[in-house]
């Protein structure tokens, strides 16, 4: 089970938080602070697993994180999750964010996940995340399936007039993407997939 | 109306949307809090408007603010409003907000049930999807119960998108409403073979989560998973399944054997590191579970170790880390195969990543042997020097001590070396672990007698150089070692070369800056040293030197008498007076040394940490029985039990300590000796080495003779390295020697080395000197550890349901649980005897065997016979049939009770086709067989000839047990006489009293009971019964029998009683009687349950 997904920046400011177990707001903030404290003091060239976050879970729980540019993506998981699998999942989610939200920055994807885009579209990011992880369990890892579902829902929103005009941009961009060329199913489980292999987009 | 809409949209133009809010917050970095509070005010205004779009926008902003830590629960109702919008856009916003901030305590959540149900059955798949996603985050037990059916239906939805979400959310539903697991399971199992890979993956996910907690219930699915494993290509699914197998194999070793081959194939073929890693992990689990079963899995181990080595050598830190993690699992069972990679592990100690270094340290712990301990520790000491002032250094320090002290110093061949290491460790500045080092020093010095001389010399040097340790500040944790040093020097002062110098060192004025508890030890041990010095001088008849010593103490001690620390002050002034007195005697030329030494005579022995707790209660000793006659009534009357209910320490607890007379002690000692003589693992003490102690039991500390073959004398401050060199030389020499006298030695060693030979034989390394480690004292017959590490609050416990069985109705002839204690049992048997006479022969043989015997064997101690009692209450009766019933719960299942109904045929006709049915309530449900509808009746599995009675059992599931409940029901049956048959029916009301949820639970330990009462978790209530005209023991028997209590302790007219509910509530009663008045003080962690139980007790007594 995934117990929490936290995204915060290099200063510990939360950019997206998703707890799959209830914590009161002040406790949530404390967890974020503690987690930030733990991961921020680690060099970029050390391993991405961390034991000993005392607030969430206890001994069975681990923090698995990735650091992209200005953002930390942290997953708090228990022992039923594969460590390497989750690492790949984080990469996958980042990739979706690039595809579905930060369309215009796709060329600089990964290395430049733009924090601003994330802040202004927190709700969109949540909707994408919901298609990947539900209630603490991984729902779908098939790239095409996720993109298709997100696109269909955005289209539905657009047909209703939307809350504001902003999402239309993303929708059109997704639509214009040459979907079949996206790898059918990112070989989740293979850590060796690195950024350059995505350059064809 | 139109105007309103227009106005609304104009308003909207001026509203901030989420982006504006974020931008605003970023532009107000200085006064962010103030800005946000104005935003919240705006949002409050927006929420008051009728326009749903405005509300949705406001809720969307609230979601953002929630992330920043603002409590938005005040808007819960508005969130529900937005959730129920018909537009997908708004609905999605509403559900997102709800999933972020709703929880079980949110009261508006109960308003959402119908809305969610509507969304779940919506024709638009995304409405359903959004509802499922939201629900997965805030599902409560109530929602789970009410919506379980709807979600179960969705598991067969036509759209895979919905199916997979429905399947996944079922896990959350199970957690909140465990009853749903059994009915939903068949369908869940079906989904494992769903055509859509997403749904399949979701089902695997859910079952893996379930099985992880309660693997034994899912063993039967192993073949299905096996099939999936060999067919699936989805790495996620494969990883999950392989992890699941890792959990299942310990339960079923045959499964492991089957798995090895496909797993090895996967290991060879896969390119995905994550899959490879999980395969290796599971192979390790399999190998552990097989451990010694198969001879030929060394190939598999080799493969695993080899693959792990590749991971560890990889440049990717993550792989390195995981490789080490998995390696440590292999280490536990196959240490040999890991030990060959020692080089690699040691290399990891140099890694720049701290987590990797820590993992490597963990591994080292298991890799040491007698052969390599010194070498490894030397390497670690180098790292200690390098890692100046970090937490990692502290970690290293504890690891060094752990490694050396593990399994009772098993790997240490040279304790002088170890003491030197400890002394070297004291030179670390700023470590937190001074205390740890100190306790090691004490432990070694006390338990390894041979080393005392050396240890004392080292400690004396430490004391002499104490200024190096105390250095600058007191918070320096390392000064703790001075505590150990002072104690060792004092206690074993006979080994000191120059006690006078040490005494002088211990009384330096600088000592007064040490922490109080250390000073106290200094003062006390200065006295011990004083005694030694005196004796030495008197032996040499040097009275002048002796008097000088006294003068030294008299000069220095006043400093400590002034100490602010009570302990120091008290000890110092005592000793000062003592020394002054001694000085007087000395001036009169009286010899005092003997008497002063006598102050500190005797030796302390190590006692195992849990020894006290593990003393078993000897057979035939009743801790609850009075040793002396109970005190006269006037004294005891109310005092004692009252103390229990008040939060005082129970006064009488002392009476529990058994005082055993000398004879008994001697007898036990004899028995113990005999037992030890027969125990091959017990090291016998050789009488010559033993002093005779006064205290009983001391002579049983196993001590082996010491044979100091290599006298070591290293001048100056010892460097542990010197030992390393010496050790090597010694080994070489020994090797040469051994060739000569191999035979001779082996014979000898066979006896001597039982104490410390390791699991892997290291025959070729003999310890530098035969050292015996005094084992810590444990009481004989110590009970095995009874620590229960299962968390009673684990939500997953409720899901421990055996899914292969479908126990709905149990039919078995009357055979009541026989575990119930004391009086109840007896009464029950009487009852049974009575019934048996009435009952027909067709199930006689069942109860015959035990019944009569136990009545005879039962401990009959009653003064007066009790009136017969029955727990069976009348359920219903007509001219054909009479039904009586009793309700019993059991501890195994906290949500089930068994209703036993005795059907008695009163007519002259044959009764058949009896069908039993009740109208379920929300709280209590009759368990019906799989596939039966919620209103189907159950067939009673017997027919009744005229005049015959028989008993059937029905299982009911209950949720809340704090309230009594009545269920209406009907029995239909056919009355068949010679000429006709008629349908008859009989209505009844089943009364589930709160008492029926209580289970007689004997509470053997009064202490535990008292502790429970003192814990303060229980709430109290009381009851007064007037005009009770029956003997006290009858009264107690009635409470025991009718209300399922057991007597914890009874003193005269007071008794404490205990019972537990099926859901684990404790119920404690204190019953007191005087003059026909009975007062019952009661405590329970569930006040309403208690209230109801008391009412029921009152009713019981109002009837008689």
UniProtKB/TrEMBL annotation, chain A:
It holds the Pfam family Clat_adaptor_s. Its main location: membrane. It is a peripheral membrane protein. GO terms for biological process: Golgi to vacuole transport; intracellular protein transport. Residues 1-156 form the AP complex mu/sigma subunit domain. It comes from the Eukaryota. One of its GO terms (cellular component) is Golgi apparatus. Keywords: Cytoplasmic vesicle, Golgi apparatus, Membrane, Protein transport, Transport. It is found in: Cytoplasmic vesicle membrane; Golgi apparatus. Belongs to the adaptor complexes small subunit family. Part of the AP-3 complex, an adaptor-related complex which is not clathrin-associated. The complex is associated with the Golgi region as well as more peripheral structures. It facilitates the budding of vesicles from the Golgi membrane and may be directly involved in trafficking to lysosomes. In concert with the BLOC-1 complex, AP-3 is required to target cargos into vesicles assembled at cell bodies for delivery into neurites and nerve terminals. This is AP-3 complex subunit sigma-2. It comes from Sinocyclocheilus rhinocerous. The lineage of its organism: Eukaryota, Metazoa, Chordata, Craniata, Vertebrata. The gene is ap3s2.
TrEMBL record, chain B:
Residues 660-804 form the AP-3 complex subunit delta domain. InterPro entries: AP3_complex_dsu (IPR017105), AP3D_dom_metazoa (IPR010474), ARM-like (IPR011989), ARM-type_fold (IPR016024), Clathrin/coatomer_adapt-like_N (IPR002553), Mu_AP3 (IPR058898). Signal peptide: none annotated. One of its GO terms (cellular component) is Golgi membrane. Residues 639-676, 724-739, 792-807 have a biased composition (Basic and acidic residues). The keyword Lipid metabolism does not apply. Residues 774-791 have a biased composition (Acidic residues). The keyword Transport applies. Belongs to the adaptor complexes large subunit family. Part of the AP-3 complex, an adaptor-related complex which is not clathrin-associated. The complex is associated with the Golgi region as well as more peripheral structures. It facilitates the budding of vesicles from the Golgi membrane and may be directly involved in trafficking to lysosomes. Involved in process of CD8+ T-cell and NK cell degranulation. In concert with the BLOC-1 complex, AP-3 is required to target cargos into vesicles assembled at cell bodies for delivery into neurites and nerve terminals. This is AP-3 complex subunit delta-1.
